[in-house]
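Exam prep: given the inputs below (a chain plus phenylalanine), describe the expected output before reading on.
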Amino acid sequence: MDMKEKLEQMKAEALEQIHAENADLEQIKIRYLGKKGELTAVLRGMGALSNEERPKIGQLANEIRANIEAAIAKKAQEIQSKALDLKLRSERLDVTMPAKPLPAGHLHPLTQVQRQLEEIFIGMGFSIVEGPEVELDYYNFQALNIPKDHPARDTQDTFYITDNILLRSQTSPVQVRTMEHRKPPIRIISPGRVYRSDALDSTHSPLFHQLEGLVVDEGITMGDLKGTLEVFAKKMFGESTRIRFRPHHFPFTEPSAEVDVSCFVCGGSGCRLCKGEGWIEILGAGMVHPFVLSNCDIDPEKYSGFAFGLGIERIAMASLGIDDIRLFYENDQRFLSQF
Ligand code: PHE
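Solution:
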C-alpha cells in the first residue's frame, strides 16, 4: 500500500469513528492527530519519498488533518446542542397549566364574631381601645370597688403573677384606664382576652373573650343603656329581637342588671337553644358607680355613665349554634372550616 492509500484509509477510519453513535472525540483526536498518533507516524515515514512525491503527500496529510479536525469540531457541536435540547425539553414549563389549589383560610369564628360586634358599636359612634391582659390588682379589682377580701373576688378567681399583678379576669379594668386619661364625653368598647381559674368544661374555659362598653357624659341615664343595647341586639340577632333586664349586682355599677335577648331561634316560646327559657343571657351591665368615677377624677355630680360587658364566646355559641366552648380552642379543621 503506498502512502497516499494509507492516508486515505486512515481518514476513512477516523471519520467513521467520529460519526459513530457514542464517539469518544477526545480519544479519537489523540489516536489520529496526537504526537504519537497515526497521522504523525505516517508523516514520519515521508523521508523515504521522492522529492516529487513529498510535497503532494505533505499537502494531502495536511488536508486530512484539517478534515479530521473539522469533523471532530462539528460532531462536538452536535453533541452539545443535542444535550441542550434534551435539557430544555426536560425543563419545559407549561405556564398555562392550572395551579395546584391552595386551601384558602379564613378568620376564626371568634374573630368573625368579634369583628361583627365591633362594627355594630363603631356604627353607633364607639371607638375601640385596648388594655393589658397582665393587669394590676388595682385596675382589675380595687378601682372597680372590689377591695381585697371582697366576696366578688371568689367568682372571678384568676391567675396571679405576684400579689398585685394578675391576668385580668374581666375587661372592666379598661374602664378605669380609659377614664384616668380621657375625660367625658367617652364612648368606647374594648374587646380582648380575659382569664379565670375555672376548670375547662363545655361552658367554661380559663381563657375567654369579653367586650367591654363604656359611655360617660353629662346626663347619661339607664334609658341610654337600654336604647344602646336594644339597637345592638337587633343588629346582632335580628330585628324582632327583644331585650330584658334582670336586677343583678356588680360592685362597680349601680344599679346593675343582667341582660337577656329573646331567643332568636324560637322567638321566645322556648326551644333547645334557649333550653326552654325563651331568653338567652348575653351580658352584664349597669350605671357606672360614683365610686369608680371619683377614682378616675371624674365628678359624679356632673357626669354619669353606663357600662356593659359581654362574653364573646357566649354570643358566638348562641349565634353560630355551637354547644361546646372547647371547640373554639382546639383548632380542629373539621370544626373551623364550617364557618
Ligand atoms: N365585668 C363584668 C363580668 O365580667 C361584666 C360587667 C361589665 C358588668 C360592665 C357591668 C358592667 O361579669
